[in-house]
Amino acid sequence: MLVKFHKSILANGLRVVTEEIEGFPTLSLGFWFNVGSRDEDQEVAGITHFIEHMLFKGTKNRGALEIAKEMDRLGGYANAFTSKEQTCFYAKVLPEDLPRLLDLLTDLLLNPLFGEEDIEREKQVVLQEIKMVEDSPEELVHELFSAFLWNSSPLGRPILGTWETVSRLNRAHLLAHFERFYGPPNLVVAAVGKVKHEELLEILEKYGPSFRKAKPPLRQVLRPQGGVKVYRRSLEQVHFVLGVSTPGARDEARYAALLFNTLLGGNMSSRLFQEVREKRGLAYAVYSFLSLYEDRGCLGIYAAVEKKNLKETLKIMADEIKALMEGEFRPDELTAALDHLKSAILLSSDSPDHRMSRLARNELLFSRYIPYEESINAIKALTPAQVASMAREIFTPLPALVVLGPVTEDELLFFDELFGD
Fold first, then answer.
1. Catalytic: 373?
2. Which of 99, 160, 253, 324 could tie 247 with a disulfide, CB 3.0–4.6 Å?
3. CATH of the structural domain 3-210, one choice from 3.20.20.70, 3.30.450.40, 3.30.830.10, 3.40.50.1000
């Protein structure tokens, strides 16, 4: 597969990155703004996600139905998402439809109406979305864990916001947030597939003068905390997340964190899946996860168990973590975990959507192109000593444990014995 990378910076500061893939029939394109829920003022928490919704509700040139019809006529798909640190508007279309796609997306981003009636109507949609999370114990405990671990910092707030903050959003709030962040200093346009870099530049340059001037976000320094937090609920199971802060996405230690996560609970052959589910049948759902942000990250473990099995499950987790901290790796499991990560990277490279996301994120984080081979080589070079050292570093402070279910804090007094000094 012949891939040609190009990068240009327009006069207004807009960065454009492309990967032209020879012989590929489609193109994936995204407008990536370096603004997310982490960058919100507390009184308007959820506004970034709300703006993402509102940009599809009408512009000075198109109504909401016209926008929907035009997307359908393109034949591919178009959508958007908001994360803790980015907002992305993306689409996959045939190459000949690139001008039409850019005309549509730039209209959404340059000319939104933010109509009062649309705002009130969309509030009800987002409030229902919040209720869906509250009705799902697995989703809710992750939200509660994030808030606890990050010690009430903006990174710990729900991306959707809360019932109170969303209910009081108004047009003035939206316009102020939009003017503040949605401009070229915070924007990367990434495209992958059958795309000509110069053609994309030529089209984008026509819209260049219309983009707003924006300011990069000033992100709060994170101060994670450990300990236990219990939310009593009348549930059949106890849902919990156990986790710690890790090095961030810009730190070379991220590769060791990826390998550690894979070994611990990142797939079906991982230690926790085998010990907790396969050997003892304590849980149906048990896994670990790694979330990386620009300056810090989070490694967490989720499980849902019967109350009587909570202590045993946490003890198994503590034992497996301590074993990895002490460098107790079996050669076969280390090789399998390395193979899993390498395969996942290479398999994802077959997807233009994934390549487009990776291209944009690398530009936002590192301001450079990172070939897949560079990431694979960094993973292959990892040693058991590096992974054990990283594990000791992140688990030396007391981890955070958030529990949702029919338990009390007094029933978790054993936690310090398992994870303390």
1. no
2. 253
3. 3.30.830.10
